[in-house]
Design a protein that fits this description.
The chain is about 15% helix and about 30% strand. By secondary structure, it is an alpha+beta fold. The strands form three sheets. It has a six-stranded antiparallel sheet, covered by helices on one side. It has a four-stranded antiparallel sheet with strand order 6-11-8-9, with no helix packed on it. It has a two-stranded antiparallel ribbon with strand order 3-4. The longest helix is centred in the N-terminal third of the chain and has 17 residues, at about 20-40.
Length: about 210
């Protein structure tokens, strides 16, 4: 379904608003919940300082992105339970195949959960050896203010609202652009009964 127009700038960036309809969002949420029973959300910390992030995280496997006092890395096991990550749901595999334009399947899917006060600072996803493969993200629940800049932290930025069911693709030049989440708009979706926002980012690690 493509009710609204895609937005594509800078090169390689795409926002596909309303890519998943409500029934698809509910089906995906059920898959996410099942995965989180096996791999519960945990509160990650910043490298060196050990400062907790406001976002809680988990992953769908085989690889998961992990941040800890010792740094950022991809690993095969949940840092708290020690269990392997649950498999990537078929629905997400299909979504990747449909929008990524990349022949290889994703190896990692980071699950971010934001409560009403959580944020994610400006960053570039740079822990993947497969630096030219795109990253595809799906948002569920409350809307968020996404900020997209350029390849340098000081480049001008633009802000876009991401709603439930929206898909973002960072490919090409956009793959190396700074981005982050400035705020969550509480009460804008009823998909998650307790509110908040889930973002899923699929990556090829390489
Ligand atoms: C978020 N997204 O939407 C944060 N990274 O909660 C990301 O950090 C992100 O949406 C790489 C590619 C797409 C993304
Ligand atoms: Fe990111």
């Amino acid at each position: 379904m493509a009710a609204k127009k895609p937005y594509r700038s800078p090169q390689g960036f795409a926002l596909l608003p309303g890519y998943l309809d409500r029934a698809q969002q509910q089906a995906l949420l059920a898959c996410v919940r099942e995965g989180l029973r096996a791999a519960p959300l945990y509160r990650p910390v910043m490298p060196r300082t050990g400062k907790p992030l406001s976002v809680r995280m988990s992953n769908f496997g085989p690889l998961g992105w992990i941040t800890s006092v010792s740094g950022y890395r991809y690993g095969r096991r949940h840092p708290v339970t020690g269990a392997p990550w649950p498999p990537l749901p078929d629905m997400l595999k299909r979504l990747w195949a449909d929008v990524s334009g990349w022949p290889q399947a994703p190896e990692a899917c980071l699950i971010n959960y934001y409560d009403g006060k959580a944020r994610l600072g400006l960053h570039v996803d740079a822990d993947e050896d497969a630096a030219t493969a795109p990253i595809v993200s799906v948002s569920l629940g409350d809307a968020a203010l996404f900020r997209l800049g350029g390849p340098r932290r000081t480049d001008p930025t633009r802000s876009l609202r991401l709603g439930s069911g929206d898909v973002v693709v960072l490919a090409g030049a956009a793959r190396h652009c700074y981005h982050g989440i400035d705020r969550i708009y509480g009460g804008t979706s009823r998909l998650l009964p307790r509110g908040g926002r889930i973002n899923l980012t699929m990556r090829v690690v390489g």
